[in-house]
Amino acid sequence: MTASTPTLPEDDLLFRLLRQLDTAPEASQRTTAAALGVSLGRLNAVLRAVTEAGLVEVTDRDSTDKRQRFAYALTSRGAAEKTRLTDWFLTRKLAEYDALHAELTGTTSGLLSLKHRTQTMQNHLAPIQELYVSPDSAQKLKRDAADMISWDLTSRQICDLELLMNGGFNPLKGFMAQDDYESVVENMRLADGTLWPMPITLDVSEDFAEKIEPGQDIALRDQEGVILSILSISDKYVPNKAREAEKVFGADDVAHPAVNYLHHVAGPVYLGGAITGIQPPMHYDFRARRDTPNELRAYFRKLGWRKIVAFQTRNPLHRAHQELTFRAAKESQANLLIHPVVGMTKPGDVDHFTRVRCYEAVLDQYPGATTTMSLLNLAMRMAGPREAVWHGLIRKNHGCTHMIVGRDHAGPGKNSAGEDFYGAYDAQDLFRTHQEEIGIEMVDFKHMVYVQERAQYEPADEITDKDDVTILNISGTELRRRLREGLEIPEWFSFPEVVAELRRTSPPRSKQGFTVFLTGLSGSGKSTIANAMMVKLMEMGGRPVTLLDGDVVRKHLSSELGFSKEHRDINIRRIGYVASEITKNGGIAICAPIAPYTATRRAVREMVEAYGAFVEVHVATSLEECERRDRKGLYAMAREGKIKEFTGISDPYEVPTNAELVVDTEGMDVDYCAQQVLLKLESMGLIAA
């Protein structure tokens, strides 16, 4: 007769058992049974059930006491089940407290959300739930995870994972399954109705997705191969990315950096499932300034702060920002948390190393007793109104009660038609609509301008004598121009310490590195112009010049690659990486590949523009002229089908629409074409006039 499989105990006992085993994995069975209030026989039956269910793993120990022969550790599934049961337990206890409060006082406690999902942290300073297992379990899971299929996380995925594990994305317990994802895209709510405006998804390649199935555990690693967590996959699905772009970002327009990322960088398959945190990502920079939600909450408790207003920023702080934050703190009668994003922001933003040095340089301008600063490792999406609501939920998780929401908050700039993606006050309007549910109060951003006669900053809409005073302001564009051209930045606008840091990172353009990227059909004249330019720039001197010609790169960097679309993309990205390193170190990179695809050229532009100027030159020689010049007979062989996937014949060339310069070499000598490029560089301030 076959023995029946032991069934799992009721949720209450199961929760207490998993919690006990997680906190004391090597305790004797007698100690564990006493802690749970059950007999040894009952404990053994329960242990068999949870072991067979894959929630607990048993290992042998060296011990003379037969009741201490085994050690118990939660598996990743056991850790995920413990997290679920923690939610269930807290929901029940909060309900019991609410009922008791109503019985004694006649009113509800106000701690419970109207939604079904547990809101464990209605008290904004109490500890918030994290997704990490205990250190002992983490060591065991790390050993187990070494044998699992693993996924190497991208920079954005690491940012998302860190905030999932430390509670910054509470109430999420992992990457979104399809029902949550689709509900968030359509309605800004999880499937259970909880407000959450941003999809948090794990995108992977098709090849990787084919190797795994729902019900499987995989290890998630950082870019150095360190195991950070285990994902218990509950869902594998192909998203409608066009719909996601339309609903989340307002338009399926690749001029939006997040939409471009969605279509050209993110993988085509999404994985959903619970996260079991093993260890946080390692940060070697500004470690004293990085705080988890629980660390900030503990800090606020220690100082006795009860109202905290968060200032979200991805830009350096200038005098107008100081006045704005002073006014916001005074208006809300709250302490101030300067909470800048140091994860991924908008391409072209000042790097976070420079920004944090700027923040630290002016922090003593704030009263130390009422102000603090902490860094947030968030990957921004620049989603405007939805992003503002998302930022509010994140700041609530970090213990804040108020948040400053700016004009065009988290706006990405202009769309393909040259218009702003979002209205100036769309973010404030959406935040205000959901303010009560977010659980954090909005402080409107005031546009501050400098009144020369009164030598002070004032809100622009509160100046009643505008016709009688001199109003001064410097826009972000004007500031970048002054930095680029080495012009004065007045002290009324910014702090000398901030200007000094910005000048260290952003010297005048004529002293910065830059990249000239020539693109065009084979035979268009790119390499010839590039060689002429290299000589002319070397003649000028001052900066090292490197030529990254397509054929030369193929020989030295990409000799193993073929000419498929995938391999051509890899080749161009390699060129872009090398060019970005040259630019970062103050040199001039001249690139001359065919680079037929818009998305790949944009990826290279973003790599380079993190460090300096990127000048795209479209060598727009006609296909007919390129064929006429073809000494190697490549076009003829392509038309005969002897060369597959040849650009312009059997594979498309996507013509640049926003190149800094267009040059047609037909009927023009090389010297004239090179001179046109040099004149463009001069007009941009990249070389001295």
Describe the model.
With 689 residues, the protein is α/β, with parallel strands linked by helices. The strands form five sheets. Strands 3, 4, 5, 6, 7 and 8 form a six-stranded mixed sheet that branches. The protein has a five-stranded parallel sheet with strand order 11-10-9-12-13, with helices on both faces. A five-stranded parallel sheet has the order 18-19-17-20-21, sandwiched between helices. Helix 15 (426-438) links the parallel strand 12 (402-405) and strand 13. Helix 9 (241-249) packs antiparallel against helix 10. The protein is globular. Residues 112-122 have low confidence and may be disordered.
Short description:
With 689 residues, the chain is α/β, with parallel strands linked by helices. Strand 10 (335-340), helix 13 and strand 11 form a beta-alpha-beta unit.
CA radius of gyration: 30 Å
| Main pleated-sheet profile | 6 strands, mixed
The number of distinct helices, counting runs of at least 4 residues, comes to 24
Work out the strand percent. 5-15%
Q: Structural class per helix/strand content?
A: alpha/beta
Helix content range of the residues, please? 40-55%
